[in-house]
Amino acid sequence: METLMDIFIYVVLFCYFASALLYWGGGKFHNSMAAKAALGLAILGCILHLAILVMRTALIGVLPLTNGLEFLLSFSWVTVLLYLLMQTRYPIQPAAGAVMLISALLVSLVVILMRDQLSAVAPLMPALKSPWLTVHVITAAVAYAAFALAAGLAAVQFFPAGQSIKDDHIYLLVGGGFVLLSLSIVLGAIWAEQAWGRYWSWDPK
């Protein structure tokens, strides 16, 4: 399983970078085949990324939300998934290259700085076994993904190809991310009280 995760993380990184390049190339040269290939690579990368998270869950026995490596993996996966879901309803495809690049860079951090931790198993502190931690980190990951997607959409608006992206799409993401991040802070405070007896025992992220 450890070897499979190592292979998958490189394949995911390739898929995301290649998808970003194909999205940009397809958009610049109006090549629909390139855009379709980019979407296929994004979907493949997202599926393999999910497989890594599932294998990591099987390896450690809990959802992979307990350290920086696992948060980066979850955050980057949700970013891609959120884009893939939104692009089926809203005309945000011009931002695909930027979004895939953001996710690729996040996965790059894992590969460059944390790859040796990918298959590492360490005993969990009792505080990290709380269900409050799980919902706290999940809401934070989705909030960060919404902000990352909003940043990608906003950046592309500066270019002619991004004119189909409306401010409403960005407001939707920022507003949703703000609500979820606020909820995450509240859930984190509850977790802190359960774990250490103080609502304000927070760690900066």
Topology of helices and strands:
Elements: H1 2-28, H2 32-60, H3 68-86, H4 96-113, H5 131-156, H6 167-196
Q: How would you describe what is shown here?
A:
The chain has one domain. The protein is an all-alpha fold. The chain has helices spanning 2-28, 32-60, 68-86, 96-113, 131-156, 167-196. It has 6 helices and no strands. The mean pLDDT is 89.
Number of DSSP helices?
Answer: 6
Secondary-structure element order, N to C? HHHHHH
Low-confidence stretches: none
| Total strand segments | 0
- Helix content bin: over 70%
What characteristic shape results from the CA principal axes?
flat
Ends apart, CA distance between termini: 30 Å
What's the multimeric state?
single chain
Number of domains: 1
Characterize the main sheet: none
Question: How confident is the prediction overall: mean pLDDT?
Answer: 89
Determine the structural class based on helices, strands and strand pairing.
mainly alpha
Strand content: under 5%
Gyration radius, rounded: 18 Å
Compact description:
By secondary structure, this protein is an all-alpha fold.
